[in-house]
Design brief:
By secondary structure, the chain is of the alpha/beta class. It is built from 16 helices and 13 strands. The strands form three sheets. The protein has an eight-stranded parallel barrel with strand order 1-2-3-4-5-7-10-11, surrounded by four helices. α15 links the parallel β10 and β11. It is globular, with a radius of gyration of 21 Å. Keywords: Carbohydrate metabolism, Cellulose degradation, Glycosidase, Hydrolase, Polysaccharide degradation. It catalyses: Hydrolysis of terminal, non-reducing beta-D-glucosyl residues with release of beta-D-glucose.
């Protein structure tokens, strides 16, 4: 059941000052393993996150995504809730192992049918479906064959992209190849805090290159199988990197993290080349000339229509005088192994004097404005879309069963104002997707962190829109921010 009170469903409100541009798209996002459940239904086989979450000690409380938010069974109710809240778009990801269980060969039609039904439900509700092909859930059989550090995985991904384009291309007009490949490469194969849990710096860099190649090959496959009007994109969690001080050492620390955190993807994807300083910083770890084959860079640089930008918090760095590093404040989980190969010595810091979320991330909307402006200046002809932005707080129902989350409303208000300012300053931002539609399995943190605008009681699967959900619905109805948060 969905707990929506008729008196709280957003109504059309008078437009506030400084509205967002005409056609600006308002949505919310989820990821397959975080919400779907149905882990072994309709032929689905384990992904690396099934294996990882079932490995003792990898996820808080031993939580798994076996059931998650049960979106697999409750998607019709969830779409109805999206409609009542006024969402214009829903960004979902496809479980690769649900539609192509081994990562090879023909698709399982029953798996494809789930996504066909979901998309049909969205279209009937007047909600634009935005499909992400990969949100970290590699089929386990492909990991057993070497995973993303192996070149063959990129080729398998292109085959999978073609399958999805043929299955849904008549109904889905906006496609994203990869979500946050930085996390897939460096948290999965570097620090090991994400699946598959490997801690191999060379493998992490190899994975980054093959994820880049997978994006390029998949973009080509989508173009070959989609209508000409369809849009392709990739979503990157670009780090808004700042040096702690004005020292030359801290400036170099920022350069290093910008290279391995951002430009390792934007360089080849958007400029057709890896940055020279990245290659120099990491040459002791991986043999780049051997890794990059002829034609790779041209394939990776296949043109896209939109760049998705995910932002949560800034990245503040320094170089310690004694050379000792501390990566525990980088916001990417605790590990004895660094997710920053070649720059393991760089230290990370939390912003002073800023509020913190339940993830202990600093709340700083100015970072989103700065990031959008930086990307816009660097790539002025490439439209942008904020594909994830949100915050986890310790939400709980009150005595009346309502969930009030004023901290999240303040977070969203500040960040949407940052987007509005970026647009006013010349950035071509086409839309905003709140992360997340509903509470879900938060990767290594299990069910202990709640990012959703909709509260999920995991024992009953009852959905309760939080105050922020109704506030966001009002923003959508206004097409502008309200006068006050």
């Amino acid at each position: 059941m969905t707990a929506v009170r008729p008196d709280t469903v957003p109504q059309q409100a008078p437009a506030a000052q400084a509205p967002f541009p005409t056609g600006f798209l308002w949505g919310a996002a989820t990821a397959a393993y975080q919400v779907e459940g149905g882990a072994s239904e309709r032929g689905r086989t384990p992904s690396i996150w099934d294996t990882f979450s079932h490995t003792p000690g990898k996820v808080v409380n031993g939580d798994t995504g076996d059931v998650a938010a049960d979106h697999f069974h409750r998607y019709r109710d969830d779409v109805a809730l999206m409609k009542r809240l006024g969402l214009q778009a829903y960004r979902f990801s496809v479980s690769w192992s649900r539609v192509q269980p081994t990562g090879r060969g023909p698709a399982v039609e029953s798996g494809l049918d789930f996504y066909r039904s979901l998309v049909d439900e969205l279209l009937t509700a007047g909600i634009k479906p935005v499909a992400t092909l990969y949100h970290w859930d590699l089929p386990q059989e492909l990991e057993d064959a070497g995973g993303w550090p192996e070149r063959a995985t990129a080729e398998r991904f292109a085959d999978y992209a073609a399958i999805m384009a043929r299955a849904l291309g008549d109904r889905v007009s906006m496609w994203t190849t990869l979500n946050e490949p930085w996390c897939s490469a460096f948290l999965g194969y570097g620090s090991g805090v994400h699946a598959p849990g490997r801690t191999e710096p060379a493998a992490a860099l190899r994975a980054a290159h093959h994820l880049n190649l997978a994006h390029g090959r998949a973009t080509e496959a989508l173009r070959a199988n989609l209508p000409a009007a369809a849009q392709t994109s990739v979503t990157l969690n670009l780090h808004q990197v700042r040096p702690l001080t004005g020292s030359a050492a801290d400036a170099d620390a920022a350069r290093r993290i910008d290279a391995v955190g951002n430009r390792i993807f934007t360089g080849p994807m958007l400029k057709g080349a890896y940055p020279e300083d990245l290659l120099t910083d990491t040459e002791r770890i991986v043999n780049w000339p051997e890794l990059i084959h002829e034609g790779d860079l041209a394939a990776i640089a296949a043109p896209i229509d939109v760049l998705g930008v995910n932002y949560y918090t800034p990245t503040i760095v320094s170089t310690p005088a004694d050379g000792a590093g501390d990566t525990r404040n980088d916001g990417h989980g605790s590990s004895d192994h660094s997710p920053w190969p070649g720059s393991e010595h760089v230290a990370f810091h939390l912003a002073e004097g800023k509020p913190r979320t339940a993830m202990n991330w600093s709340v700083d909307p100015n970072g989103l404005h700065a990031l959008l402006m930086d990307v816009s200046r660097e790539h002025p002809d490439l439209p942008l879309m904020v594909t994830e932005n949100g915050a986890a707080f310790d939400d709980a129902p009150d005595a009346d069963g309502r969930v009030h989350d004023p901290e999240r409303i303040a977070y969203l208000h500040g960040h949407l104002e940052a987007v509005r300012r970026a647009v006013a300053d010349g950035a071509d931002v086409r839309g905003y997707f709140l992360w997340s539609l509903m509470d879900n399995f938060e990767w290594g943190y299990g069910y202990g962190k709640r990012f959703g605008a909709v509260y999920v009681d995991y024992a009953t699967q009852r959905r309760t829109p939080k105050s922020s959900a109704h506030w966001y619905g009002d923003v959508i109805a206004r097409h502008a921010l309200p006068p006050e948060a």
